[in-house]
Amino acid sequence: MRNRIILLLLALMPLTLVAQSYTVYSVVGTARWHNGKTMVPLKARKVLSDNTKLQIGEESAVTVIDEKNAKMYSFTSAGTNTVADLIKGLKGNTKSLSKQYLSYVIKQLFSDDSEKMSHPNTYMQATATAYRSSSNDSLLLNQLGRHFAIDGPIDKSVESTLVDPDADPDTDYDVEFELIDCATGLPLGEQIAPNTSCYLRVTNQTTELLYMNLLDIDRQGNKYLVLPMDAAATCAHLLVPAMSTVSFKKEPFIFGDEPSEETLLLMAVREPVDFSIVMDHIKTGGKSTMRLGLNRRFYQVK
After folding, report:
1. What does each C-alpha distance from 138 to 176, 260, 274, 277 come to in angstroms?
2. Where would you tag: which of 37, 204, 223, 257 has the fewest CB atoms within 10 A of its CB?
3. Closest to 19 measured CA to CA, from 76, 67, 91
């Protein structure tokens, strides 16, 4: 009888060992998970099961990693659902990961640097050198130079072309953004009152999961990267799922109190990149195989 009990226990063990789990990669907007009788804010690194209930807010996104199947899933359905139901309802927003890239993502996700955020006001080269090579950063600069092809004097900078309303850059991805007034919840027009606070709302109209950031540059060439970069350059907090609209309400910013002309440029790429490289002088020349989505808007503070 004892042997039969042992055999039964051994037969049941694999069912426990293969229980599915998912690691939270990023949360954009608001999301909570059901912990007993309470709902707890969801954060990166949290491990979920198929039966975990998630409550996702409007214009929010949760991306999880399935290590067993080497996949990444993004959830954007507002409301309360189990992880299993969210996965069943996915029609897109699934990305297969190579073993090398999966290993890199997990390593960086649990790095202490993944929680260190900064808004660079000078060029900052991130320390991450594993899978995301610095060559990707150079590709971003090269592709920006290619999209903003320079006409006129040879010494004209890419930055001066970038703020020129007559320059019409093309884009590799269908992406859009708008600035939302924190006070009214409405999109801002081209003319903005001084000291207006707002946040970024982004729409990804492609079938790709894209990493995005917003560059602000004024007529004097001063630059500001709107969304912070993590020191590990995972860009997890910058991921916008396919065919979705998300709002970065946790990263509001404020316009100054002096009259100014501001050009804001949305940048979107498929793989993590150190967006802070655009704080450096954008050079032309060089080859680029990187696809880059762009959307530009002009604002006047007065």
Report:
1. 24, 30, 9, 8
2. 37
3. 67
Nearest-angstrom CA–CA distance, 48 and 66: 10
- Which neighbouring-strand residues pair with 254? 197
| Contact between 83 and 52 (Cβ < 8 Å) | yes
Instruction: For residue 14, report the phi and psi dihedrals to the nearest 5 degrees.
Output: -60, -30
- Is the per-residue pLDDT at 158 higher than 50? yes
Antiparallel, parallel or unpaired: β 71-75 and 61-66: antiparallel
The strand pair at 293-301 and 191-192 is best described as: parallel
Asked if residue 107 has pLDDT above 90, the reply is no
CA atoms within 13 A on the CB side of 262: 27
Q: Which residues pair with 178 in a beta bridge?
A: 201
Amino acid 278: pLDDT: 86
Point out which residues pair with 96 in neighbouring strands: 71
135/200: higher pLDDT:
200
Asked if 41 contacts 221 with a C-beta cutoff of 8 angstroms, the reply is: no
Structure tokens given for 124: 């900052």
Does residue 279 sit in helix, strand or coil? helix
State how far the Cα of 108 lies from the Cα of 124, in Å rounded to an integer.
18
Place of tokens 């998300």: 246
Of 233, 265, 32, nearest to 127 by C-alpha is: 233
3-class DSSP state of 262: strand
- List phi, psi (to 5°) of 185: 75, 10
Q: Are 42 and 24 in contact (CB under 8 A)?
A: yes
